[in-house]
Amino acid sequence: QGPQKRSNSTPETPRPKRAPSSRSPYGIFSPGSFSPSVTPSQKYSSRGGRGEVVASFGSVQGPAWSGRGGAAIVRLFGRPEGNLTKPYKFMFQKALDVREALAGRVEELGEVLQRHHGLEGFASAALPAQEPVTVLGQIGCDGNGKLNAKSVLLVGDREHSGGAQVPLDLSELPEYSLFPGQVVALEGTNSTGRRMVVSKLYEVTP
C-alpha cells in the first residue's frame, strides 16, 4: 500500500486550542498577570498633603547647626566661574564646549605632571623621534571592546601634538594600570612616527 494522502478539508469538530498550563512560561507572563488592580487602595486615596512641595534644589536639609557664629551659612565652593548659576540640561552641551573643557583639563594636568616629576617639556607625539622624548596626552582605545595591551593609543594634547593619535607599545614597562581618558606623560621612542615604544610612564598623583 502506498502512503496515505493527508486530508486538506477542515474537520467538522475542530480540536480546541490548548490552554497554557501553569508550568508554561506563556501562562506565567500573560498580560493578566501584570494587570494592576483598578481599585485604588484606601490608604492611597486618604493621603494628605497632595501637591505639597517637601524639598527643593538648593535648600538646606537637616537640622540647623548652631555654633559660635550662630546658624550655618551656605557658601559656594570653588571659583565663581566654576559653579552653575542657572539650570542646564544634562548631556545637551555643545561639542565645541566639551572639547575646550577637555583640552583645558589636559593642559592643566600637564603642568602638574611637569612640576611634580621635574620634566623639561613635551614634544609632539606625531613626529618621528629616534631619541627618547616626553609626550603628553590622554589614553585611548583603538577598538570597540575593553582596553588591552594591543589596543592602547595616546591622543596627544592640542598644544604640542595637535590631537594626533599614536598607538603605544607597552612591552618595555614592568607594570602599568591605564584606563581610557587618563591623562599621562610618556617617555619613549617613535622611530617611524606610527608607533611609540614607551619606556617610562608618568601619572598624575593625588
From TrEMBL:
Annotated transmembrane regions: none
Gene: Pola2_0
Entry protein name: DPOA2 polymerase
Cross-referenced InterPro entries: DNA_pol_alpha_bsu (IPR016722), OB_DPOA2 (IPR054300)
Pfam families: OB_DPOA2 (PF22062)
Biased composition (Polar residues): 1-12, 32-45
Taxonomic lineage of the native organism: Eukaryota, Metazoa, Chordata, Craniata, Vertebrata
DNA polymerase alpha subunit B OB domain location: 99-203
Segments of this protein annotated with the region Disordered: 1-49
GO cellular component: alpha DNA polymerase:primase complex
Lineage top rank: taxon: Eukaryota
Species annotation: Rhipidura dahli
Main location: nucleus
Cellular location(s): Nucleus
Alphabetic keyword roster: Nucleus
Any one GO BP annotation for this protein: DNA replication initiation
